[in-house]
Amino acid sequence: MSAIPVIAIFDVGKTNKKLFLFDEDYQIVFEKSARFTETVDEDGFACENIESLRLSVFDSLSEVFRMKEFKIRAVNFSAYGASFVYVGADGKPLTPLYNYLKEYPEELSQKFYNDYGGKEQLSVVTASPILGSLNSGLQLYRIKHQKPEVFAKIKYALHLPQYLSFLLSGQPFSELTSVGCHTFMWDFARNRYHEWVQHEGLTAKLPPMLSPNKVVPALFPGNNYKVGIGLHDSSAALIPYLVNFSEPFILISTGTWCISLNPYNHIPLTAEDLKNDCLCYLQYQGKPVKASRLFAGYEHEQQVKRIAAHFKTNVVKYRHMSFDPGIIERLRKSEILRFEERDLNSFKDDTEAYYQLILDLVAEQIVSTQLVLDGSAVKRIFVDGGFSKNSMYMNLLARAFPSIEVFSASMAQASAVGAALVIHKEWNRKAIPNDIIELKYYSATSSISI
C-alpha cells in the first residue's frame, strides 16, 4: 500500500502545542499534543520554554518521518503572536521568549509615545490599541533601550511562527500576519513599517518579508519536503472562510474573547474605534481585517458560576439549554444592564436568570459586531467556537441581524487548517474541498443544518 501524501502542521498555542497530519482531503490522519512546564525569565516572570519547544518540533518531525504510511510533502506553522525570538549569529536564541503579559515599564512607555507623536496618533496609524508588551514592537524597543548589549548581538528578531519555520529551513523571514497584528510596527495607511521602526534601527534586525503562501527548501533531514514560513494563529483561522466563501462575511470567533472579524471593511480605524477595543489585523494576502473584541466568553463563565451558586445548581445544566421565545419576550421588557449588575433574587428561577445572561451578552455582541459591520456589504455572519453551540445565543443573534444570514460554523482545528490551505498548491494535488466547514443556518424563527 502506497504512503498517504500529507502536510504536517505545528499549531502552537500558549498552553497546548499540537502536531497534525492532514491528508489531501484535509482530514486529520494523525495528531499529537504536548504541554511544557513554563520557565522564568531573568526577572522571575513565567515564560515559554523555548528550548523544550525547539526539541519537541525536531522530535515530533523525526517521529512522523519514520512512519511508513505517510509521505510528508510540506510542513507549516500556526502560532500565537506578540512574541519575538531574538536569534544571534549562530542561529540560537539570545534571551528567553518573553511573555507578552509581562508588565511594560511606564517610564520607557512614556518616552516612546513622547518621541513618536503620542498614544492616540500612533494607535490610529498602526491600528494597534495600547496593550503594553502585547504590542510586540515595544518588546524589541525595550531590548534596545534596556539591554543594548543584547540588542547589538541580535542577528534577527523573529516572531514565533517564523522562528519555528527558521528551525527547519535555516532561512529567516518576516511575515505580514505576524507584523500586522497590534505590533505598533506597521503603518496601515502607507502599507510599510512605521517610520519609528526605521528611526530606532530595528529594521536592521528584521529579516526580509515573504508572503505566507510561499515555501522554502528544508534544511532539517526528511524526504524532500517544503517548509512554509508560518502564520499568526488568529489570521490562519480566517483563511478557511476566505478560501470557501466569496461573498462578504463577518466571522465572530468565540472563546474567552469574542472577536468579530470583517475582512471587507476598509474604512480606516478612528481614535473612537480604538477606545471601543477595535483593531486591524493583516490577513495573509496583505489586506486589513477590521476586528472588534468583547470579553464575553470569560463573562459567561463567571456569571454561570454565580447563577449556579445562587440557585444551588450545577454549571453543566446550562451547556445545552433549549431556546424558548416566550421567556425571551418576557425578559425583553427588563431594564438594560450588564448581567453582573443584576440582582439574582429578581428572577423566579435559574432558567430565567440564564436566559437574561444570554440576552445581555448578545446585546453587547450586537454593539461590538456593529463596530466592524458598518460601511461594508456583509451578506453572512459565521460564528465559530463555544457560543456557536449555544442555541439561545445563535437564535438571538439571528433575530438581531434579520437582513444577514447567520450561521454557526463548525470546523476542527481552524488555525491548523488555515496554515495548510495557505500553501495548498505546494503540497496538494487535489482541489480544495468545499465541505471543510460545517454550517447550521439560523433564522428568526427556526434553524436548519446544511
From TrEMBL:
The keyword Kinase applies. The keyword Transferase applies. It holds the Pfam family FGGY_C_2. Signal peptide: none annotated. Keywords: Kinase, Transferase. Gene3D superfamilies: 3.30.420.40. GO terms for molecular function: kinase activity. InterPro entries: ATPase_NBD (IPR043129), FGGY_C_2 (IPR049382), FGGY_N (IPR018484). Residues 7-228 form the Carbohydrate kinase FGGY N-terminal domain. Residues 247-426 form the Carbohydrate kinase FGGY C-terminal domain. Belongs to the FGGY kinase family. This is FGGY family carbohydrate kinase. The lineage of its organism: Bacteria, Pseudomonadati, Bacteroidota, Sphingobacteriia, Sphingobacteriales.
